[in-house]
Amino acid sequence: MSNHPIQADEPAAKVRTVSESRSEYSELCLPSSANLLGNMLGGHVMHLVDLCGAIAGVRHSRSSIVTASVDQMTFLHPVHLGDLLMLKSQVNRVFRTSMEVGVKVWVENLRTGELRHTSSAYLTFVGLDKQGNRIVLPQIVAETDEEQRRWREAAERRAYRLAFKDKARLPGQ
Q1: Looking at CB atoms within 10 Å, which of 7, 57, 65, 146 has the fewest?
Q2: Domain CATH number, residue 32
Q3: Residue from 113, 125, 64 nearest 89 by CA
Q4: Running DSSP on this structure, what letter comes out for residue 106?
Q5: Which domain range does residue 66 map to?
């Protein structure tokens, strides 16, 4: 993440809705992304989570963004060879130069139609201009009850992340 200053001459940012950021991404589990047990590599799932989250972030900000953090990931169910991995993402809340994006991952057995939730994650992205300086991001409007709940909970998660970040700093930083 860039430590450059925030651009003061940034024009007033447009307000956008959560629904304008929603994104979906799917990928079939092929041998090239599987481990020796025939399951999709966890690191590959994490890569796809980052990619799907970034699509929502760019769709919202209409700018370059970088991943600043990813909350923990738990893998509830394996993704077997031939399964379809489906990811959905949306911006939950925008702060000033950062935003939280939620990503939910499902796996579908294409032969049986069985659909299972396999992972979820919250990612923080920071908006950057062409010189790598942080920019003020457009604010977001949470319209539905579910979007408003996610908006409120994002502030709690951010407070936890910031407290953890402060504790993790090395002496002298």
Answers
A1: 146
A2: 3.10.129.10
A3: 125
A4: E
A5: 16-168
